[in-house]
């Protein structure tokens, strides 16, 4: 849906248009975050209120449906996307490695949305979509191209939260695809079945995710369009990911780690976000060291530092 804003343009004349569209999208996500949706849904006039909100925010018209039409449908009118993972823009992202194929300074941004599809009891089926881009905006000699964009749609089931005296536990099971939309020899993609568990207690979050990569047939020739573009990706990404999060008042500190123990390769991402004046966006710092910041760099270790703005942060 939104992929058209990330086409690999060869002219810097489109830079303003692309950035304006992204900022407009982020602004809408920020409004969604700020809105008290619980109050809207609980109100007797929830249908008209939500419809009016969607019309004002997304400029769309919705024909409300009654929850009595199907008792298993989510009672949220299913009319717009919710913010999902972190949504941010980092105007200054610097690579400290030698990069002959690119400039060391670039713009990095990500947006992420989800849509509930179906609910049975307290189990929810969702569609999610995350898109991450790396924009060589400062490379005027090459007309400021997008060097890489990763597209990540997924379907996942949220397992009901279990609350105990020791904290809260919540599970997720899903299937996701990730690719960069390129052609051979720059094509990169993989599909994963994953499951995860989130544990939270008093401002501390521990999120552990494991996955099984769907096998693909081996290429007979490296130039073939069919077959596995990156058969060794598991050697760099490993089979799991651990995210530790800590709230200190309004500041969120996160540490993400991936490790392929059998191959001695791994990744660490450290990030800090804090509300800026107005409480609608956050100042954002990101440090990256390791493999797989993007699919094209899945087997390339990079050290990067970035400073920018987070529009929507995933709390845990």
Keywords:
mainly beta; globular; Outer membrane phospholipase (ompla), Chain C; 14% helix; 316 residues; twelve-stranded antiparallel β-barrel
Description:
- By secondary structure, this protein is mainly beta.
- It has a single domain (3-34, 81-312), classed as Phospholipase A1 (Outer membrane phospholipase (ompla), Chain C), CATH 2.40.230.
- The protein is 14% helix and 47% strand.
- It is built from four helices and 13 strands.
- The chain has helices at residues 15-34, 37-42, 46-58, 234-237, and strands at 82-83, 87-95, 105-120, 123-135, 146-164, 167-179, 189-201, 204-213, 240-248, 251-260, 265-275, 282-291, 301-312.
- Strands 2-3-4-5-6-7-8-9-10-11-12-13 form a twelve-stranded antiparallel β-barrel.
- The longest helix has 20 residues, at 15-34.
- It is globular.
- The protein starts with 14 loop residues before the first helix and ends with a strand.
- Mean pLDDT is 83; it is low at 1-19 and 32-76.
């Amino acid at each position: 849906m939104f992929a058209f804003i990330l086409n690999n343009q060869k002219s810097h004349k489109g830079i303003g248009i692309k950035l304006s569209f992204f900022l407009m999208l982020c602004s809408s996500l920020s409004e969604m975050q700020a809105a008290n949706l619980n109050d809207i849904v609980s109100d007797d006039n929830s249908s008209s209120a939500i419809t009016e909100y969607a019309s004002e925010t997304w400029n769309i018209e919705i024909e409300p449906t009654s929850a009595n039409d199907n008792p298993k449908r989510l009672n949220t009118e299913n009319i717009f996307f919710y913010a999902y993972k972190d949504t941010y823009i980092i105007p200054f992202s610097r690579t400290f490695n030698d990069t002959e194929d690119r400039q060391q300074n670039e713009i990095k941004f990500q947006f992420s949305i989800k849509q509930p599809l179906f609910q049975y009891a307290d189990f929810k089926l969702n569609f999610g979509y995350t898109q991450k881009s790396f924009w060589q905006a400062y490379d005027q000699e090459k007309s400021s191209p997008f060097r890489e964009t990763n597209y990540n749609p997924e379907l996942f089931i949220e397992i009901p939260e279990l609350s105990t005296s020791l904290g809260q536990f919540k599970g997720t099971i899903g299937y996701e695809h990730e690719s960069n939309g390129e052609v051979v020899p720059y094509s990169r993609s993989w599909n994963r079945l994953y499951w995860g568990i989130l544990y939270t207690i008093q401002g501390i979050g521990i999120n552990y995710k494991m996955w099984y990569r769907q096998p693909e047939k081996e290429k007979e020739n490296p130039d073939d369009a069919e077959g596995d573009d990156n058969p060794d990706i598991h050697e760099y990404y490993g089979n799991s990911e651990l995210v530790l999060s800590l709230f200190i008042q309004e500041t969120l500190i996160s540490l993400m780690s991936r490790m392929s123990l059998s191959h001695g390769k791994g990744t660490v991402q450290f990030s800090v976000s804090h509300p800026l004046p107005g409480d609608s966006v956050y100042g954002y710092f990101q440090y990256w060291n390791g493999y797989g910041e993007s699919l094209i760099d899945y087997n390339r270790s990079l050290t990067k530092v970035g400073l920018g703005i987070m529009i929507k942060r995933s709390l845990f």
